Amino acid sequence: MTLTMATAPGAEKSFGRYGWQLAVLGIALTLAFMMPALINRFPLVMEDSIGYSGQGVGWIRSKVPPILIYPLYRVMGYWALPLFNAIVNAAAWLVLIYGFRIRKAWLVLPFAVAALQPIYTSAVLVDAWFFPAIVFLVFSVKWSSPFLGLAAGLLLAGHGSGLPLAITFILIAAFLFGLKSIRMTLLAIVMMVSANAFVNSKYFPDTPPMSKTFLAARLFSVHPELLRRECERSGNEVLCEAAVLVEDLKQDPETAGRRDYFWDLARILRERFDLRDFERNHAKAIILDGLTYRPFLTALVVVQDFFSFFGPGTKLDFNAVLSEPMPPAYDGSLQAKGLWQDDQTRTLLTGLRFVFYVACIVAVAVGWRSSTIDMRKWFFVIVLMCLANDALFALLSGPPDRYHHRILPLYAAAACILWLSARSASVPAEQKS
């Protein structure tokens, strides 16, 4: 009995040799995904990082990541999440390579680098979880694998965008593959909802999740008048003060294009701007008011923000000065010296991103004609998920760019499926007696 893997039309390799090749590639990917942190001399961090690091559990962000990473955090500190990110993302690439019988598999490495994937795997953030989550969802359907469905659900539980995007995946997969494709995605959703419900019942059970605040903040960042109208309706004078602050920020050339003024209010007004009270008593009213208040201008801003994700001027959120306390080792990092906000760094990453877009287009053009119907269907699933991600964040938060950057590796995966997948009709791996 021999286990074989078809890697190209008419070609077979022993699984043992192929397995070693995958192992070497997995190590190379893991090292590449840690490289920016190693060069930086500390993991890349931003204001949110303390809530994901494993150091403790906060009430604003998902509580699943810090709990999941806590055992590793006790050993490695802030390096724990980047190592986890690197290993899981490398594993996802190996699953994709094996499942689609990717030829010249080493080519995924430059694709991943050009997609800026190492930047986000090296960060104390969970944006890097979206790539493996979607890859695992794809193969939970292809292989009818409950394990991959559960793993995808756990990863999607790390961010509030997980549920709407998992529902989007169900709709796309059901349309292209039929209702039989939804079972494992439903399992992922059950896992996601259950994990969040469990940790929410254990930590800050009396604090409402910020399910409405972000959309309300998105609306009043476009229309500060909504804060003033809610101030007049509710009698909460702090909201009137907040409206003046947002108007001032919109007039400042350095902050005029931003969509995240909510965090400025929380930082400047501090305890006077009560986030829990805003979520419970004001966010819904602002959303309902915002739906009918100058809707065409709101829609125009959303469309502009969607297309801005693909434009020049790459902006990273890894600022040198952070309001959250960081470990002493951070002070010796290149980030603390301003590397990731440097114009040369941003220009380099912008150039790399545009090279990546061109490479993806060329790969799709070259591979399309000889690709199978199944390849094309999965290509469309992944690309539509990428577009859904950008549409969701253009609607809910607009820039920062990292919400678009997190799906660039999925574009790379989609391009590799069409360009590098073996065209043999044989299954990925078959057991012959």
Automatic annotation (TrEMBL):
Record key words, sorted: Membrane, Transmembrane, Transmembrane helix
Q: Where is the signal peptide?
A: none
Kindly list the residue ranges recorded as spanning the membrane.
Answer: 20-39, 78-98, 119-141, 147-177, 348-366, 378-397, 403-422
Q: Identify this protein by name.
A: Transmembrane protein
Organism field: Peteryoungia aggregata LMG 23059
